[in-house]
Amino acid sequence: MSVFLGGTSQFSRATVDPEKIKLADIQFSAMAFTFNKLLRRCELKCLLHEYGEGELTKGEQECIDRCVSKYVKANVIVGEHIQSHGLNPFNSMPEYKKVQDILASAGKK
């Protein structure tokens, strides 16, 4: 019996689709990779590595805001370029290849 859902909940009889779990895992991995890359890049560009205080300075905060904004905008532009030119990201990105394989195997069922 779940503390949050109760024993008679509609979710007590729910099934888990392994294909959806795989897709969610791949999506999470891709997002974590992007976030960590963004974090490393903006940290190197914006933060002094001489920590005198625990809080960010106003200049560091503004730099990080600009860095994140530019990174996100660049990702949007690249995504739009890929879509508009009909390029296939499955050829160069292993995460997309995994998704394509999962979707293909799900379609065969």
TrEMBL record:
Domain Tim10-like positions: 23-84
Listed GO CC annotations: mitochondrial inner membrane
Molecular-function GO terms, alphabetical: metal ion binding
Cited Gene3D superfamilies: Mitochondrial import inner membrane translocase subunit tim13 like domains
Highest rank taxon of the organism: Eukaryota
Cell compartments where the protein resides: Mitochondrion inner membrane
UniProt cross-references to Pfam families, sorted A to Z: zf-Tim10_DDP (PF02953)
InterPro entries registered for this protein in UniProt: Tim10-like (IPR004217), Tim10-like_dom_sf (IPR035427)
UniProt membrane topology term: Peripheral membrane protein
One biological process term in Gene Ontology: protein insertion into mitochondrial inner membrane
Keywords annotated in UniProt: Chaperone, Disulfide bond, Membrane, Metal-binding, Mitochondrion, Mitochondrion inner membrane, Protein transport, Translocation, Transport, Zinc
Oligomeric and partner information: Heterohexamer.
Family: Belongs to the small Tim family.
Domains as described in the record: The twin CX3C motif contains 4 conserved Cys residues that form 2 disulfide bonds in the mitochondrial intermembrane space.
Role summary: Mitochondrial intermembrane chaperone that participates in the import and insertion of some multi-pass transmembrane proteins into the mitochondrial inner membrane. Also required for the transfer of beta-barrel precursors from the TOM complex to the sorting and assembly machinery (SAM complex) of the outer membrane. Acts as a chaperone-like protein that protects the hydrophobic precursors from aggregation and guide them through the mitochondrial intermembrane space.
Name of the protein in question: Mitochondrial import inner membrane translocase subunit
Organism encoding this protein: Candida maltosa (strain Xu316)
Lineage: Eukaryota, Fungi, Dikarya, Ascomycota, Saccharomycotina
